[in-house]
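User: Teach me something about this protein's shape.
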Amino acid sequence: MHRAAPQEARRRKQSTGLRRAARALIVWLGAIPLPPGAAGKAPTTRPRADLNDLLARFSASGTPPAERLGAAERILELGQDAAKRLLPLLQSRERFVQAAYQRQFQLRATHLRAAKTAELAARQNKTRAQINRDIRGWRKTVLSLHGKEGLTEQVIHRQTAEAMAKLNDLLYVDRRTVLARTPELARQRAHVLKLVTLGRRCERIASGRAGPPPA
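Assistant: First, the predicted structure itself:
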């Protein structure tokens, strides 16, 4: 009984010493910098996960335009490999948005031309059929001079000026007019231009030519 007590005390003392040594070793190891190879391995999992999440967010059909552009900007910050993965998705999105914009623009321009025709018909107290007949006559006047020899530019202009002016006034609708009357279409065009600019930047980064954009 008396001998067991000193042995138990010694074991407790040894255990306490080991725990202190272990804590000191942990502190000491924490102060040692990681070797170059080990320093690069630990953080790679997180950027890869972030990249996959950003690519998924960019590709999702329900992602708002501003958020989609923000995801693309963050992807490009991850470097060349990330840009290579983004590039085909960005190009596909650019084609899709451009096609949608062009369809909407043509539709809106057609509506505006129809409205101008209706205004002219009301102003001249004519039917739509009569206005369309006038349009065909003006076109015939312009096309009748095509291929004729010996006509100078001044003669062509003099003989077709009136018909061309009427056709332009009635049928020509410029982009500024269409966008001014369709704010949503103007916003869509701005988004297309941002995608185009972003696509060019992505191409430069993916090809290793990252730097200031060409003037």
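Now, about its shape. Residues 25-29, 38-44 have pLDDT under 50 and may be disordered. The CA atoms of residues 76 and 190 lie 21 Å apart. If you'd like, I can walk through any region in more detail.
User: That's plenty for now, thanks!
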